[in-house]
Amino acid sequence: MKRLSLLIVCLVLTLSSCIKDEPKNSECDIISAWVEGDQMAQLFYQPSKMRIENISSTESTIVFPVKSFLQLPDSIAVFFNVTPGATIKPASGTKHNFREWPVTYTVTSEDGAWQRQYTVAFKEDNLPAYLFSFENVETVKGINNNLYHEFYEMDRNGTRQNIWASGNAGAAIIKTNSQPADHPTYQTEYGYYGKGVCLVTQDAGQLGRWFNKPIAAGNLFMGRFVVEQVMTDPLKATEFGRPIDRVPVRVTGYYKYQPGETFTDKKMNVVEGKVDEASIYAVFFRNKDEQNNDICLYGDNVLSSPYIVRKAVVAQLPPTNEWTRFEMFFEGDDADPKVLAEQGYSMTLVFSSSKNGDSFEGAIGSRLYVDEVEVSFEETNDDKELEGEHHE
To answer: How many CA atoms lie less than 13 Å away from 303 in the CB half-sphere?
Structure first.
């Protein structure tokens, strides 16, 4: 009996030791955020926008797009899902006045060793000025002490709108102690007018070769970049589109372009006689399917999805060292006015230094400059009424 009792004690102590030694979770991320209630639902063009899912670990700002900022109630409860074991302050579901200022939330990991801060805000869901001059960038510090640019726009109320994304966060994985101009997409001081954007096709290094992704084309697009998908499913890393309540007709702008010297395929084999090409295009598409599920275009269907209504493509971008005007017109079907009024359509505008960069084919050193891009839309009844008032 003594031996049996001793064996039981040893077993209990062993199990207790295993439980104590199990490491606690060191992650401190917000996974999803949402608001609830009929009153809040009236503030959104689409009820699905009341919930933001799959928040990237690289994001620190969470924005709920509403019809009108002035109609926000004085007290709003925002709810969160965080990584297992983590805690959030202020607590999920507590009410705050988001009309006065954004609210900062702090997430602490289960082991207590890590914290992340998130800013949560409500902003009017308006597309900013339709002339894009690329004057606004934020210098972001990524992993390995890398600094890169993120482009944004300012709306008519002076509010920042994060409509642009690029692959810079993915390129930062393979770099160390880099500056913004060392990345595939950065702001240049020498635009057509003021500043502009420069896109460069770069060598993705040994890590890229291991994954058969040897180059990183400079790109800038309306949408979102999900860095977690870069190595596993890179075509899903680019989520194209932003809701819009107008029908695009034409896109104009200015560019300069010079292709790199040597075109290679995804295995870095030289393709003799092939010259790299830049790419500029835009897509207008339905953002809901027949079951009212959200639609987002990705790298593998941005030009072929059945939900595309109209698209515009610049047929040729001949090499030039001088700023040269480009123009493209949208072709396709008419938009449903009811769906349009509910922002049931989205648009993306895409620039790339290598046309086949999504297939990891192109020429290292290909360089595309873009500036003063203007999107024209079909005239609405509101536009006609405003024009009539100006004539009176």
So the answer is: 11
